[in-house]
Amino acid sequence: MSKIAVMGDWDSIYGFGALGLDTFRFDESNIEEAGRLLRRLSEQDYAVIYITEALAARVPNEIEHYRTLPSPAIILIPGISGNTGQGLAAVKKSVEQAVGSDIIFGGK
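Given the sequence above, the corresponding structure tokens read:
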């Protein structure tokens, strides 16, 4: 059975553990490890990896590498510091690529 992971700062992700999701805590001191873990999780049985927008901004090349692959789905979520809009922009980009036009915002 596929698993779900959540990556980000502790304050943003600790509640996901209560839902049975695997949580992986990262802060400013171990960003390089975040990229390595993302690669490792993608090779394991993780179908979905939620990652905070703040952490995703620090590992953009890793995120972009998996954007076109069917699995794992990497979903950006707002963190404790708030919503940057990066997650919604990523969803919009994926929908435009799949459908061929902006059906979510109508080009706005």
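Strands lie at 3-8, 22-25, 46-52, 73-77. Try to locate this feature in the token string yourself.
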